[in-house]
TrEMBL record:
It comes from Actinopolymorpha pittospori. Catalyzes two sequential steps in the biosynthesis of coenzyme A. In the first step cysteine is conjugated to 4'-phosphopantothenate to form 4-phosphopantothenoylcysteine. In the second step the latter compound is decarboxylated to form 4'-phosphopantotheine. Catalyzes two steps in the biosynthesis of coenzyme A. In the first step cysteine is conjugated to 4'-phosphopantothenate to form 4-phosphopantothenoylcysteine, in the latter compound is decarboxylated to form 4'-phosphopantotheine. Residues 8-178 form the Flavoprotein domain. Pfam families: DFP, Flavoprotein. This is Coenzyme A biosynthesis bifunctional protein CoaBC. GO terms for molecular function: FMN binding; metal ion binding; phosphopantothenate--cysteine ligase activity; phosphopantothenoylcysteine decarboxylase activity.
């Protein structure tokens, strides 16, 4: 249960159908040890009642500045909060927040908050794309608020499009990242930047059943995408055979093979300010593909598989950049051998690839792949070596973006 030193979170809930999903977000925040005050609008209570919010948060719930006037809640809640997250955020509350209106407890709290503020929009596509909403979102972002891009998918009724509420677990990951970095105003050094991140491991099929692949889970790439969103970037995530849920606020493109990955990365890079290649593309593929399952034979002989080399995406992108100021970073999963150490191989690869930064990490049975933690040395073409000690993949992701931002 939250204690006196627990992070203080204000969860604003507005009157959209996605309000019911905010119950899951509230539970995740509370179970993580945060002290959460839910501040719904009057409209939100048409979807989820006050008793539900109070029971899940273990805190009183109010909507108006006239409740508990002696505590001055419209001032105190914002002043004391470590994070304010409005989920869902309707077009109405985005407009009020952008224009400084304060006609209830939630909008008054937004005006007094000096901590990071996150808006999670959810509305019909036409409302999200309306010039008025886009202008309000731009205003809020310019002031330092984080306004997540809504997801695409099924909306109310039979409608489908952009405007869907992201999954609560992914919104929670954004909140956790922000709280871990302190209650200072959000670092928005990637605001206005368009970045591309690749993640996962490619597959090269021998037949309809079998493929050549690797153990990459995509966790590091997804951590990079989340961190970029938190820092204000517009993020395209190119995911190769990843089963993780899409991070909130990210545009995801799914690919299978190394050639698929190459095409997607090169296309996305045309309009990007940075590309971070965290995916593990297969270096080789079978020369031929059999359109039926390869059968075992009675003489127990094994088929011979001839391999050909796949394109080197990182080297191609680094040497043929669509923009001179494009920052390119790559990953090198290495093991030491008789010819050199992990760092020796990393330095050689940096020179050969031609990227600006190369994240070198040692891999093994219990290192790197499929783990929630990581450690690395980030090599720069300027001769720099940045050691990132063992820690979360989120921490490594932020250190990488630190170095990318420096190169702009």
């Amino acid at each position: 249960m939250p204690g006196p030193s627990s992070p203080r979170v204000v969860l604003g809930v507005t009157g959209g159908i996605a309000a019911y999903k905010a119950c899951s977000l509230l539970r995740l925040l509370v179970e993580a040890g945060n002290a959460v005050r839910v501040v719904p609008t009057e409209s939100a209570l048409h979807f989820v009642g006050e008793a539900t919010w109070a029971a899940l948060s273990h805190q009183p719930v109010h909507t108006q500045v006239w409740d508990d006037v002696h505590e001055v809640p419209h001032v105190r809640l914002g002043q004391r909060a470590d994070l304010v997250v409005v989920a869902p955020a309707t077009a109405d509350v985005l407009a009020k927040a952008a224009n400084g209106l304060a006609d209830d407890l939630l909008t008054s709290t937004l005006l007094t908050a000096r901590c990071p503020v996150v808006f999670v929009p959810a509305m019909h596509t036409e409302m999200w794309e309306h010039p008025a909403t886009r202008a309000n979102v731009a205003t809020l972002r310019e002031r330092g608020a984080l306004v997540l891009e809504p997801a695409e998918g099924r909306l109310t009724g039979a409608d489908t499009g952009k405007g869907r509420f992201p999954e609560p677990e992914q919104i929670f990951e954004v909140c956790r990242d922000i709280l871990a970095r302190g209650s200072q105003p959000l670092l928005q050094d990637l605001a206005g930047r368009r970045v591309v991140v690749s993640a996962g491991g490619t597959r090269e099929f021998l037949d309809p059943v079998r493929f050549i692949g690797n153990r990459s889970s995509g966790r590091q790439g997804y951590a990079l995408a989340r961190a970029a969103v938190v820092r204000g970037a517009s993020v395209t995530l190119i995911a190769a055979n990843v089963t993780l849920p899409a991070p909130a606020g990210v545009t995801v493109t799914s690919v299978v093979s190394t050639r698929d990955l190459r095409d997607a990365v090169l296309e996305a890079a045309q309009h990007a300010d940075a590309v971070v290649m965290a995916a593990a593309p297969a270096d080789f593929r079978p020369r031929t593909y059999t359109d039926h399952k390869i059968k075992k034979t009675d003489d127990r002989s094994a088929p011979t598989v001839e391999l050909v080399q796949n394109p080197d995406i990182l080297a191609e992108l680094s040497h043929d950049r669509p923009r001179k100021d494009l920052v390119v970073a790559g990953f090198a999963a290495e093991t030491g051998d008789a010819e050199g150490s992990v760092l020796t191989h990393g330095r050689t690869k940096l020179a050969r690839k031609g990227c600006d930064l190369l994240v070198v990490n040692e891999v093994g049975a219990d290192k790197g792949f499929e783990s929630t933690d990581n450690e690395a040395v980030i090599l720069g073409t300027d001769g720099s070596e940045t050691v990132v000690p063992h820690g979360s993949k989120d921490a490594l992701a932020h250190r990488i973006w630190d170095l990318v931002a420096e190169r702009w």
